[in-house]
Specification:
The protein is built from nine helices and 15 strands. By secondary structure, it is an alpha+beta fold. Helix 2 packs antiparallel against helix 4, helix 2 runs parallel beside helix 5 and helix 2 packs antiparallel against helix 8. The two termini are 15 Å apart.
Length: 446
Amino acid sequence: MSDMLSIGASSLRAYQAALTTTSENIANAGNAGYSRRTAPVREVVAPAGIITGSAQGLGVVVTGIARAADIYKTAEVRTATAELARTETGATWLQRIEDSLSGNQLGDRLTAFFNAARAVAADPASLAPRATMIEAASSVASSFAATGKALDGAMADLDASASAAATQLNGLAQALGKVNSGLGRSAPGTSGQAALLDQRDRLLEEMSALTDVSVTTDEAGRALVRVGGVAGPVLVEGENAGAVSYARSDAGLVAYAVHFQGQSNAVFPSGGALAGFTEGAQRIADAHAEIGRLATAFANGVNAVQAAGDDLQGNNGAPMFAIGDPASQLTLVLDDPRGIAAAATGAGVRDNSNLTGFETLRSTGRFEDGVSSLATANAAALSARTTVAEAQSAMRDSAIAERTAATGVNIDEEAVDLIRFQQAYQASTRVIQVARETLQSILDIR
């Protein structure tokens, strides 16, 4: 009878653990990153020679809490997350460039300036069209300057975002180091270890949204993390976590470095938001450089036309624009409509032959086409990024679904297990009850 009581008690404990584990699964079914737990039960077999006859078992025992895991599907989710984050981050700064180029109507104002020069050519002695041309010149200078400032603002925001992302990555690395420390102290097959492993995987997935990470784990589940690929520098090893720094040159070249245990190594992220910031900074810098080139060529060209003719008072034409630093910061320095040099030198106030220089400048300089081409190329890149992001988002969703199918909680399955374990638990209590009743009956006979 004592054997029956022992077996029943072991069964009772085992299925109580199974019920607790199943209940925990159901309670956490909606929590992202939670991996399904099970409580494996095995038979306790008596050593040979201890028990005679046909009896072979001493009941059952729970071998520990087993956590569902699939390292390959989990790695696929991290890879898909890194690729999507890079594309989406790059698209964000392409959108900022588009807003900077289109929001200040630079192309329209260049067109208005050259059209105003034609109006002056139609009546070179009249002040009204000259005033309109000066106003158009002022608008062009303001538009160049505003476009440059908008791109400067985009770059400043990118710097702030990239620095914040690096700080966030460093915080995640520190947190992962603490989780590694906990895993080193936790007993295998416990709920505590399973919870730490869930937290480890969540941290790694968050890190992959910032940069591509290469992960290896030891027997305790502690993660060693490299950034920038399998050959990249170590960011987390055991309890030790490094730090990532961000820097950018005026030319838009971004540099990241990992500082770990007294050593600093350059890192070149190929995925995650950090890679997107690298692309974005270069594109903003290139757009700014092109706007500066157009501003310089436009100002020098207009000033050269001015210098080739006479103004309304018969004086040699003065410069219309001053080039700032950066070059996009144009300033209108000619505010008197009579200072427009419409006439050829010595030809008189009714002459307009020098204004043909503006038509030549317009056709050779192709300033309007330059602005349009820059905007079109950026829009095409943004459209391509958006399309790629949609595909990558679908791929990431698919990867998450596959991981969930392998490691997530299925409510229907858990409900079936709950009923099955409940029945087994009730049966175990009945075994104990029968054993007690039988034992009592024997005692009563005595």
